[in-house]
Amino acid sequence: MKKGMNRTLNSLIIVMVTAILLFTFATPLFGKLSKDGDREGCKLSMLVRTGTTIDAGPVKVDSPISPSCPRYSLTFFDDKYELSKGTDTIEKKSVDELNDFIVNREIAEQLRDCWYQFGAGKIDTFWNPGWLVGDFNDDNRHCYICSEISFDDSVNQEVFTGFYEYLQDNTISGKHEAEGLKLYDYIANNGGYCQEDWFTGDNCWEAYAAEKNIDVKPEFKKDKKYAAVFIRHGEDRKATTLNAYIMLTSEMNKQCDTYVS
Hints:
Blueprint: H1 2-33, H2 35-51, E1 54-56, E2 59-61, E3 72-76, E4 80-85, E5 88-94, H3 100-117, E6 141-151, E7 159-160, H4 163-169, H5 183-187, H6 204-212, E8 220-221, E9 226-236, E10 239-248, H7 252-255, E11 258-259
Helix pairs in contact: 1-2, 2-3
């Protein structure tokens, strides 16, 4: 019995070391490529973190890997919008005049990327054995802020509407795992982790939002700040709820018990 346990432990250690080495060397390469490279590096870090978090009977090991996921800032001006990471401007595009379509498109992209980089509901992100590193293995709601969204004083239009309809009407294009899917189907009808509590209603994304009073049809006011937020809610591994939403930054503390960084 002891020999079998030792073999299991040795195998787990080899898997962990291999995964950590892969992550260590691959993530900097992703980060140097582009904004999309950052998203891929984040996703890789979450895959490695999940794969190196072990709960196998008496063998409980929390992953040493932390999320490698930059936080972005999306700022709208009346004649352009800018995406930044820290002090670096990643993307800047001029527009004739800011309108509903442009705002909804860019905010939808932040939501899509947020959902994608944390595994699109396919991996139980941020779970750990709990007894090793605190209270993550509980029923709290743990959040990661993917992007912060704001409007410059130069913006003339007071309110931007139609976000929910934009998600339903527009498909994902380009080299993406969900190419051809409606944005709404990718984010809401995703078939990912969902506790039984949220199996009512149209889908988990809608049902969870309704229960927690999260507005899935936000209107964007120029004097408010918003964020793309990933939420993990649940106690047991693979018995949790994973979702991503756009919400007012002033509402985040009502939806998040802790923030992951």
